[in-house]
Amino acid sequence: MSVALATGRFVFLRPDDVVCHVFSDGVVVYDEADGSVQALSPVAGEALLVCKSAGTIGVAELAARLELDQPSREELDSVSALLGQFESMGFLEHTAA
Amino acid sequence: MSPIQTLSTLSLAELTEELANGGVFLSVPPFVMHIASPIPVVAQGLHALYGRHELLRNGARFTDFHVAVKSETRLFKRVCVFEMDGFQPFTPLAYGEAFAFLEWGMNWCVTSHCHNWLTIHSAVLEKNGRAVLLPAPPGSGKSTLCAALMLHGWRLLSDEMALLDPATGLVTPAPRPVSLKNESIEVIRKRAPGAGFGPLAHDTLKGNVSHMQVSEQSLAQAHVPALPAWVVFPQFKLGAPLTVAARPKAQALVELTSNSFNQHVHGRAGFEALARLVERCGCHDLTYQSLDDALVWFDALERLP
What we know:
heterodimer, A: alpha+beta, B: alpha+beta
């Protein structure tokens, strides 16, 4: 599945509905709204947790919060792709803010 | 206090008669079942497999489920139907499958109605106070492995469903006969020539099915819950050597939620209970062909501190 690179800022939808359980080998996300359960890699899971705690976030800010020091174009693309995935999973939504 | 009366105090003829005329009230821990059926194979199965279970003679005790397997004729063919409280949740099956139908129907009663537990499609066994969950899809060899472990001294809590208390994390035993299919029936018969087997149901949707009696130890300790220490995903594979791999816990949790019959009923609390279970358990993928090799591995697992 190809995911479009995300630009702009995103708002975390329904943070009270989304429960994350962190293991050393990944993060499991439970969405109380529809009962879905999904496993994320440790990096993706950490990114989702950052998005959730930030409330509203963009690519550069997420990269910084993931401690990517002076991220390369590829790293920024990867972070952008993660945001796009979270958006397609229904956790994030574009915002003008 | 009068001694308990077990089903074995009835002859097969007496049991057949009682089942056909009002039914019997049977302790099937942790439940009380009222079972009725005019079909002889149901009496044969109960007589062969539930002899050690308490027969309840006074009607004062609460009965969890009123079930029946009845005979009907449809399109000139004799079939059997399963009923709970007069409701028929399934389409009829062949007449010869009546006892297996009772077993499957009783499983359905529990998984569809007992939401005080989080129910997971999994075998559960225990040794020295620590329980192992064996969640697996049909065809994985779960029941065969489960029967072999029981014969090897593990206490059976269930062949089909883990009844997990979401608050305490303990699994409530529900020891019932182990459902064996096709070649597994002979494999286990050879390992335990003295074990009790129920009637053979031919050509069911699952193939040939026969149930094996639960061990005396498992039934005697049916009131003792157990705390899970391991989650093992078994996979029988012809010609494969025994291999074990750590199952990532995140994956194990997703797998357990998909094997739960009623996690959606428990919602967030159910998810968190399963997460706690996975957190404290060792999670493994076990591929095996030889039951003996698998038993050696389980022995080693159980000896770990």
